[in-house]
Amino acid sequence: MGARDFERQLLSGGNGSIQHQADVLVIGGGPAGAWAAVSAAAQGARVLLTDKGFCGTSGATAPSGTGLWHVSPDGKAREEAKAGRFAMGGHLAEHAWMDRVLEQTWANVERLKDWGYPFPADDQGALRCTSLQGPEYMRLMRKRVKESGARILDHSPALELLVDEHGTACGATGVNRQTGDTWVVRAGAVVIATGGCAFLSRALGCNVLTGDGQLMAAEVGAVLSGMEFSNAYGLGPAFSSVTKSLFYNWATFYTAEGVAIEGAGSSKGRGVIAQTLQSQPVFACLDRADAQIRAWMRTAQPNFFVSFDRQGIDPFTQHFPVTLRLEGTVRGTGGLHLADDSCATSVPGLYAAGDAATRELICGGFTGGGSHNAAWALSSGFWAGAGAAAFGRDARARSNRTALRAGGVALSTRGATRFDAQEVIRAVQAEVFPYERNWFREGEVLRDSLGRLDALWARLRSSAPAATATEAVRAREAAAMLATSRWMYRSALQRTETRGMHRRREHGVLDPAQRHRLLSGGLDEVWVGQQSVAEAA
Amino acid sequence: MIEVISAERCTACNICVNACPTNVFEAVAGGPPRIARQDDCQTCFMCELYCPEDALYVAPIADRSATAEERDAAAQALMGSYRSAIGWGRGRQSTASADASFELLRRAH
Fold first, then answer.
1. Chain A residues closer than 8 Å to B17 by CB
2. What pLDDT is attached to residue A369?
């Protein structure tokens, strides 16, 4: 466990053309990263936030509309909300974590109101805070990050973490992909808020989410959890990126001949759609929406209609082809394992928030995305930021300590030949996209995929580093997707049952004896272990 | 994917170069930016929202370039339509305040 897979190189004075110092480095500028930055700055920390793209448009939230798990503390509402998805998640959520996320989400929504987010009012005049419009929310969060005093580096993907001689996280290196300038951040603590991994499937907003943070964290020995809960597929028009599925609750699904497909549905019947798509196209029509529902849909998610309006399709009367795009751990629940309430990972100085972290704590092995994930992002970001600020302040006195570069594949490997990142990406996609491999899992098929994925890793491990830091960005994305796929399928192989979103063909029911978490990690050697679920107090 | 940068409307402010989360655009000295990496476009429409001149058109097709027929007439008619629907731009009000998701969420499950 946590064995070092690569020889670490000492960070020298000449590494990185641009040098920064911070108490807290936040990697990733989606909602979790933005809340982490605001929260750390509020504790008095000097904060630097880096984003691969642009903080404000990056990530799955910005281009979307998202539900939010915002539940009143009055009466039984929260008890019902917690119970609502507990069984669907396979009884792996923990009441203490659900309680504190509901509480923190409630508090942070009050902040959003103070900051001027325009929540809608119902006909009684009460503000309704169960959804957020992505562009507006993330534009506001960028503004708040700046006003908090945190600095933002856009278009600045991190490539690897830095650790001191004790293995404590103390910064990162990266590159500005528009100028080609490399950078080094020496920091007292690091928050990984890089999102989940959707394998470049072109699901809405997800192509920046390639598992980069999980790779970097695993290289310093961090542990993951729940990586078998990683086969979420978003439903949308076949031609389009817009995988927003709420409205398909009012859809009927059809064959090409216009015959309704029995059992097909957006939530419970999605398996029927996956099954049918393996042999023939599936069409949808939102023909169960009445005039009132249609009007609400238009104002609820303008982005949903952009695709249809531009293709000249009326989704309420015409049949349009649909597909399922893999959203991996973005709408899955697996991610970095958290060691305590401050969202610390198993590595000192390293924190995780949002979809980069496991969400099993609040929704077990299933989430429809949105609601719980949005609440998790703003709660875990808030805690990780505060936790990192406390840790980073203590580390300030030791800012001259040794820093070792922890990056392996594509950065410090010693082979003679470089690997083709696009080819690796296609090879990984060929193992994780197909419904017959990943939606429906089976031991033999998982082993078959792992054979090729492990061999591919061995090849990357003995390849040459990328030619430039800019080229390393795509090469590291490929490596991160590959590492993610191996934690996924090793964990999926170990869980010989059907629980949450994880479905095994040959083990079609839930096995009460497997009500535990699966931890995983490692790069050259992937390992999987068990951890028990904390019971309600 | 991003298909059109209107030379008539673009003022070369390069906001799109900065706002695109997947770094699709490239600034060009003395003129509009160019679409340098179309294949990296994730069809998120964010560049349209951040363009103050409604000079960009993103076709809704995620996996390939649009044909001229799919692109030209639609671009002509619909440039700026998404920004207008969101309520961004001078004289407009964010439509987030009209978000009826709560009505739908109440009825969806």
1. 178
2. 66
A58, A65, A306 member nearest B45 (Cβ): A306
- In this complex, is the C-beta atom of A65 within 8 Å of any C-beta atom belonging to chain B? yes
Q: Do residues A75 and A150 both lie within one domain?
A: yes
Q: What is the pLDDT of residues A95-146, one digit of tens each?
A: 999 999 999 999 999 999 999 999 999 999 999 999 999 999 999 999 999 9
> How distant is the Cα of A529 from the closest Cα of chain B, in angstroms?
36
Q: Would you call B39 an interface residue with chain A, using a CB distance cutoff of 8 Å?
A: no
pTM, two decimals, is: 0.97
**What three-state secondary structure class fits A439?**
coil
- Report residue A521: phi and psi, to 5°: 170, -170
Q: Which domain holds residue B88?
A: 2-108
Q: What angle do CA A470, A471, A476 make, to 5 degrees?
A: 100
The CATH number assigned to the domain holding A435 equals: 1.20.58.100
Do A343 and A293 belong to one domain? no
A522 is a domain residue: no
What is the structure's pLDDT at A401?
83
Q: Which residues of chain A make contact with B88, given a CB cutoff of 8 A?
A: 135
Q: How far is CA A360 from CA A15, A153, A325, A335, A338, in A?
A: 38, 31, 22, 9, 10
User: How many domains does chain A fold into?
Assistant: 3
DSSP letter for A318, please.
Answer: S
Q: Which of A241, A301, A367, A477 to mutate to test the interface with B (most CBs of B within 10 A)?
A: A241
Domain containing residue B90: CATH number: 3.30.70.20
Residues 143 through 172 of chain A touching chain B, CB cutoff 8 Å: 154-155
Question: Do A71 and A81 touch, CB atoms closer than 8 A?
Answer: yes
* Residue-level pLDDT at A5: 52
How far is residue A42's CA from residue A78's CA, in Å, rounded to a whole number?
29
Domain holding A291, by residue range, is 235-327
Residue that wins the pLDDT comparison between A12 and A22: A22
Domain harbouring A157, CATH code: 3.50.50.60
Please classify residue A76 by burial: count the beta carbons closer than 10 Å to its beta carbon, then call 0-12 exposed, 13-18 middle and 19+ buried.
exposed
Q: How far is CA A183 from CA A11, A156, A467, in A?
A: 12, 8, 17
Question: Is B69 part of the contact surface with chain A (CB cutoff 8 Å)?
Answer: no
Is A516 domain-assigned?
no
- Based on the fold, state whether residues A170 and A281 are members of the same structural domain: no
Kindly report the CATH number assigned to the domain that includes residue A294: 3.90.700
Give the distance from residue B12's alpha carbon to the nearest chain A alpha carbon, in angstroms: 17
Question: Do A387 and A462 fall within a single domain?
Answer: no
Do residues A335 and A323 both lie within one domain?
no
Interface check for A421 against chain B (CB to CB < 8 A): the answer is no
Tell me which residue in A56, A296, A308 faces B100 most closely, judged by beta carbons.
A296
Beta bridge partners of B13: none
Count: domains in chain B: 1
What ipTM does the predicted assembly reach? 0.97
